[in-house]
Amino acid sequence: MSLLKLSGVTKVFGGLTAVNRLDMEISEGQIFGVIGPNGAGKTTVFNCITGIYTPEGGKISWEGEDITGLQPHQIATRGVVRTFQTIRLFSKMSVAENVMSGRHFRSKQKWWNTIFHTPKSYKDEIANWQHVKENLKYFDLIDYASHPTNSLPYGIQRKVEIARAMATEPRLLILDEPAAGLNDSETLALVELIYGIRKQGVTVLLIEHDMDLVMELTDYITVINFGEKIAEGTPSEIQKNPQVIEAYLGSEEDDD
Amino acid sequence: MKNTKNLLFILFFACLIIYPFVTEGRWLAVGITFLIFSIVALSEDIVLGRAGMFDMGHAIYFGMGAYICGILNYHYGLPIFATIPFAIIIPALIGICLAAPIVHLRGDYLLVTTLGLNMVFLQVLENDAFGLTGGPNGIFGIDSPSIFGFQLMSQTSIYYMAFIFFIITLLIIKNLEHGKAGRAFHYLSQDPIASQSIGINVRFYRILAFALGAGIAGAAGVLFAIQYGAISPEAFTFKESVLFFAIVLVGGPSSIPGILIGTFVMFVLPEVFRQFDTARYLVFGLAMIFAMVLRPNGILPFKFGKFPKFVREK
């Protein structure tokens, strides 16, 4: 059964159809890629999935449940968590506090613990910090734990954002251009990181411009252009697809 | 570093405890005022400093607490202590109702909206709503609180009552700093979209911040009512709201010592320099300007990065 299924998803901005009747199906354990030229509507698709936009038409279902039009936090608590193309960290706060934000909805503290703690809520607090520590260790970020994130190099910030998303114990991790702005060695490390995440049983959905990375990393690819799906298949199928080549390189007629 | 900070706090509390023994009269009243306004400023800070919402109408909840205490005592004969739960819960509930339709507004828009709410609140008080608020003159003759048959008439006993409220407020805020909700306030004020995307119900926590801030301000209102034994609308105008707003920004959002210093500067120093009459406001105005220009994060800015030590140990 598919984990996440988009059927006929349409998103319109004013007169512009950013996403047009898009179908997509992601199975558990996949590393799924979405590619397309700039402005093709990839990020809009992600924003529809994560509830930041409500699509005008179509249906998004998560494990058979219709999640179209739910609030972002409702979608996140179901296990669909994302990172952003332009890194969105809590920039004044330390790395540890940023990662702790991912523990928010896993924490069992009740609303009255806002006013006073009970032994139970103390224990919950410590348990979550413990989890943050494990997470920081996994992502090799312990050394940066108390650094404010706005003082960190770009590559580390990316990692912190992924660490934060992983702290929520997601089922589906959505990465919006995770390699953007990374150098070669950082990109290599990212590939290992994503394989490691998949190994933990997390399905990965990603947008990426770095074609080498996408071809190496993903099991299945959907290609979008002008908001419509123009191809889908395994990386080797996509590489041979004439329509995809046309979208990326321009058609032969254009050259005349 | 941490030790000197703790030492300063202990010293501060010691001073607050012995204060009534070394002063009397007007200066004791100034001490009570400091405690009451500190509580209100700390409650405003929950909304403005921590949750990052520009609440320019916090005097509403302060006034509401005072008026609920006054109305229940004066019109319905409830003892003062019995009015306290009402003076906390009703402002908190009204805070929820007022905040619910407006918390999605962006900073400046929210500011203007809360300013409007403050003006409406003042109109309600001045027009003697339901014959309860006493119009422009307010309510006179509020009882002094009594406990086990003892009347807490003296300024000293009111001072200590305010001190206890003050300590409770600080405990709640400390609690907030080491819990899920307090962190959520910081997250959503820095980046609401990122907060939502990792599962924080931004709307819920914004409203919770308003409820908490309103409840604490309501409690401070009770203290205000019994300190003067009377309440009138002019103590709760939007000018007061602006002052609380300024205290948080000048002192340092989310910073407890910063806000206490801010309160001291805004409410206690004017008493100290009383002989200079209105000229003192020129000095304070200039001080505010310089504080904001030279220290845009407040006099004593809040520092993030507080978490259990074991997290960064290898």
Rg of chain A, please?
19 Å
Which strand order do you get reading across the main beta sheet of chain B? 1-4
* Greatest chain-chain contact: A-B, 48 and 35 residues
CATH top level assignment of the largest domain in chain A: Alpha Beta
DSSP E strands of chain B, number: 4
- In the predicted model, the low-confidence regions of chain A spanning at least 5 consecutive residues are none
Summarize the amount of helix of chain B as a percent range: 55-70%
By secondary-structure content and strand pairing, the structural class of chain A works out as: alpha/beta
- End-to-end gap of chain A: 47 Å
What form of chain B results from the Cα inertia axes?
globular
Oligomeric description of these chains: heterodimer
Identify the overall geometry of chain A.
Answer: globular
Question: What order do the helices and strands come in, and which of them pair?
Answer:
The complex is a heterodimer of chains A (256) and B (314).
Chain A: E1 2-13, E2 16-27, E3 31-35, H1 42-49, E4 57-62, E5 65-66, H2 72-77, E6 80-82, H3 95-101, H4 119-138, H5 154-167, E7 172-176, H6 184-199, E8 203-207, H7 211-217, E9 220-225, E10 228-233, H8 235-240, H9 242-249, H10 252-255
Parallel strand pairs in A: 3-8, 3-9, 6-7, 7-8
Antiparallel strand pairs in A: 1-2, 1-4, 4-5, 9-10
Helix pairs in contact in A: 3-5
Chain B: H1 2-22, H2 26-50, H3 59-74, H4 80-99, H5 107-126, E1 139-140, E2 146-147, E3 150-151, H6 155-177, H7 180-190, H8 192-197, H9 202-228, E4 230-231, H10 238-251, H11 256-272, H12 279-294
Antiparallel strand pairs in B: 1-4, 2-3
Helix pairs in contact in B: 2-6, 2-9, 2-10, 2-11, 3-4, 3-9, 4-9, 6-7, 6-9, 7-9, 10-11
Describe this entry's structure for a reader.
The complex is a heterodimer of chains A (256) and B (314). Chain A has helices at residues 42-49, 72-77, 95-101, 119-138, 154-167, 184-199, 211-217, 235-240, 242-249, 252-255; strands at residues 2-13, 16-27, 31-35, 57-62, 65-66, 80-82, 172-176, 203-207, 220-225, 228-233. Chain A has 256 residues and is of the alpha/beta class. In chain A, the strands form two sheets. A six-stranded mixed β-sheet of chain A has the order 6-7-8-3-9-10, sandwiched between helices. A four-stranded antiparallel β-sheet of chain A has the order 2-1-4-5, with helices on one face. In chain A, helix 3 (95-101) runs parallel beside helix 5. In chain A, 45% of the residues are buried. The mean pLDDT of chain B is 89. The longest helix of chain B is centred in the last third of the chain and has 27 residues, at 202-228. Chain B is mainly α and 314 residues long. In chain B, helix 2 runs parallel beside helix 6 (155-177) and helix 3 (59-74) runs antiparallel to helix 4. Chain A binds chain B through residues 50-52, 71-73, 76-77, 81-82, 84, 88-94, 96-97, 100-102, 104-105, 107, 109, 111, 113-117, 121, 125-126, 129-130, 132-133, 136, 142, 145-146, 148, 164-165, 168, and chain B through 171-172, 175-176, 178-184, 186-187, 190-191, 193-202, 208, 212, 304-305, 307-308, 310-312, 314.
